Amino acid sequence: MFHEAIDLKYLDGTRLAVTFSDETIREFDMASMFDRYPQLKALTDRSLFISGKLNRYGIVWNDDLDIETETIFEDGKIIGVRKDAYHGASAHAVMEARCNADLTQKQLADLTGIDQSDISKIERGVANPSVSTLERIAKALGGKLKIEITCTLPPEYFQSLETREE
Q1: Burial of 14 (0-12, 13-18, 19+ CB in 10 A)
Q2: What confidence score (pLDDT) does residue 131 get?
Q3: 92 Cβ neighbours under 8 A, 6+ residues apart
Q4: Whole-model pTM?
Q5: Which of 5, 92, 118, 133 has its CA 20 to 30 A from that of 30?
Q6: What confidence score (pLDDT) does residue 160 get?
Q7: pLDDT tens digits, residue range 110-122?
Q8: Which segments of the chain belong to CATH 1.10.260.40?
Q9: Domain 5-81 CATH superfamily
Q10: Secondary structure in 3-state letters for the chain
């Protein structure tokens, strides 16, 4: 399964904090790869380290230095979950759909009747769009809105609740 990275923060040393589309934030220390990939030791140069660019598949510093997001997802330590998970998920979904349609925010605003500044706020995750607003955006893009609730608690949690009620 592919885990898309949506945000990158540089921590101290050679540590990264990467936010994934599942809203988990994972910390990864590039130093853990130095023995296996000695060329990565160049990342101890702070100016080089913070020059890395995040794309869907990984972080790229130059032609010789990169890391796949799957490595960070699998080997990184979960350090948190985005507090604005709903906003982040809807922001990412709107921006991705708009970009896939090759539209500007202004063009999407014209199609939906929603102010361009509001489209920008939605895409930055600072607005709290209603379901009807998201439906208007989806319809304008020729798509449909899908809302999903994912249970992250193990089944044992719910069984213990049943036991307490009896």
Answers
A1: buried
A2: 92
A3: 6, 21
A4: 0.52
A5: 92
A6: 63
A7: 999 999 999 988 8
A8: 85-140
A9: NE0471-like N-terminal domain (3.30.2020.10)
A10: CCCCEEEEEECCCCEEEEEECCCEEEEEEHHHHCCCCHHHHHHHCHHHHCCCEEECCEEECCCCCEEEHHHHHHHCEEEEECCCHHHHHHHHHHHHHHHHCCCCHHHHHHHHCCCHHHHHHHHHCCCCCCHHHHHHHHHHCCCCCCCCCCCCCCHHHHHHHHHHHC
Quote the tokens at residue 2. 């592919």
From the candidate CATH numbers 1.25.40.10, 3.50.50.60, 1.10.260.40, 1.20.1250.20, the one assigned to the domain spanning 85-140: 1.10.260.40
pLDDT, one tens digit per residue, over 127-163 is 889 999 999 999 999 999 988 777 777 777 677 665 5
Which part of the chain has CATH 3.30.2020.10? 5-81
Is the per-residue pLDDT at 6 higher than 80? yes
Tens-place pLDDT, residues 16-68: 999 988 778 899 999 999 999 999 999 999 999 999 999 978 999 999 999 99
Residues near 64 by Cβ (< 8 Å), separated by ≥ 6? 39
